[in-house]
Specification:
The protein is mainly alpha-helical. The protein contains 16 helices and 3 strands. It has a 3-stranded antiparallel β-sheet. Bound molecules: carboxymethyl coenzyme *A. The site of carboxymethyl coenzyme *A has 20 residues, from loops.
């Protein structure tokens, strides 16, 4: 048999990659075809599997929307009940994971905590295919967060309750009492509104990992790490800190002025895709107003509204409008959720979208491997270390 001959290496032919175009921030690049989420950035509309998010938030519950995202259709009553039972049955944390939680520093950053424990879930995996594991992640993430909250607060851990919804069980496990219907509904809507958002940075990052055929735990761990930054999920926490700094409605105007003059960004404003209001912002704002009235904290709501007005005056002409994070943190705060858990609330809601996109991507997997346009030098003369 003839011996295989490798192509010659031509020392004189240098292939520069300068023909490639750089798309900073990958703006406008499509990575896959998808049937999961559509964002109409100009028209201020968001769709999950073809359904307007405003219809879903009005008429559906979170579990229904998770089913929709994962399986493509709204469930029948029987399908929904069976899916709810499945989620509830997957909530219990393995003893090893509970032990790990108890060994972590009580002052861990909550996103570091979630990233670490989601990663560790692969070590306590109880089998099943990747869809089953994904459903396990959706079911367990809120439970892990509640367990962490109780552990760091010196409170006794609680067992999950199967008869409660995802939202109801989360609030129960956080605060030790079954929430009132109105609170559960607010939590449910907050989960639903953040369940997916197309190829945001964290979802894209999860696909990069998934595209190597690494498992779902590794892919979601990547997503959590990516969500943490203040330009992405971390913005809701920054908004809460910003409102603390502003202090009262009458200081909003000068605060915004000062921030923009010194070249800083207004948190909870702007979006890569929306060049109009983020529809989720409207839903969160309505809930924040209702909760503020209920809690007697209209001062805080009005401070936020004054910051919003002042920022809009200065930024709307650049198509920069409030995004989902402007009021979401306030809603969590009014539910009694500690401020530093704001980003993790985003993460446990988005778990559904991450899982749905990873499973969809695997149906037609191809390694994600872009390249950088090389603008450095080539063929430099090598200088031995003694002569440098
Ligand atoms: N405040 C002030 N100026 C802003 C803001 C803002 N929040 N957002 C964008 N700009 C300006 C920016 O300074 C730049 O101005 P210029 O052209 O004069 O230099 C211009 O708008 C374009 O900015 P960009 O960073 O190139 O735009 P982008 O599409 O990459 O940014 C963004 C999107 C979300 C990173 C940005 O709007 C931002 O930093 N917002 C604040 C953080 C935030 O609220 N993030 C949550 C996003 S929504 C939830 C999520 O997806 O996690």
């Amino acid at each position: 048999m003839e011996k295989f001959k490798y192509p010659d290496i031509n020392p004189l032919r240098i292939e520069m990659s300068d023909e490639c175009q750089v798309y900073k921030g990958l703006e406008g690049i499509c990575v896959k075809e998808s049937r999961i989420c559509y964002i109409d950035g100009k028209g201020s509309r968001l769709y999950y599997r073809g359904y307007n998010i405003m219809d879903l938030v009005e008429h559906s519950k979170y579990e229904e929307v998770v089913y929709l995202l994962l399986f493509g259709e709204l469930p029948s009553r029987e399908e929904l009940e069976s899916f709810e039972r499945k989620l509830a049955s997957k909530r219990r944390l393995p003893d090893g994971l509970r032990g790990l939680i108890r060994s972590l520093p009580k002052d861990s950053d909550p996103m570091d905590f979630l990233r670490t424990t989601v990663s560790a879930m692969s070590l306590f995996d109880d089998g099943g295919d990747e869809t089953e594991k994904g459903i396990g992640l959706i079911a367990k993430a809120p439970v892990m967060l509640a367990e962490f909250h109780r552990y760091r607060s010196g409170l006794e851990p609680l067992e999950p309750r199967e008869e409660l919804s995802q939202a109801g069980n989360f609030l129960y496990m956080m605060f030790g009492k079954v929430p009132e219907g109105s609170e559960e509904r607010v939590m449910d809507r907050a989960f639903l509104l953040l369940a997916d958002h197309g190829l945001c940075a964290s979802t894209f990052a999860s696909l990069v990992t998934a595209s190597t055929l690494a498992d779902i735990y590794a892919s979601i761990t990547t997503a959590i790490g990516t969500l943490a930054g203040p330009l992405h999920g971390g913005a809701n926490l920054q908004v809460l800190k910003m409102l603390e700094e502003v202090g009262s409605p009458d200081r909003a105007e000068s605060y915004v002025e000062g921030m923009l003059k010194s070249g800083k960004r207004i948190w909870g404003f702007g979006h890569r895709v929306y060049k109009n209001f983020d529809p989720r912002y409207r839903a969160f704002k309505r809930m924040a107003r209702e909760m503020a009235e209920l809690r007697g904290r209209m001062d805080l709501f009005e401070t936020a509204e004054k910051v919003e007005e002042a920022a809009l005056k200065r930024l709307a002409h650049k198509n920069i409008y409030p995004n989902v994070d402007f009021y979401s943190g306030l809603v969590y705060y009014f539910l009694g959720i500690p401020q530093d858990l704001a980003i993790t609330m985003f993460a446990i809601s988005r778990m559904a979208g991450w899982v749905a996109h990873i499973l969809e991507y695997w149906e037609q997997n191809r390694l994600i491997r872009p390249k950088a346009k090389y603008v450095g030098e080539l063929d430099k003369k090598y200088v031995p270390i003694e002569e440098r």
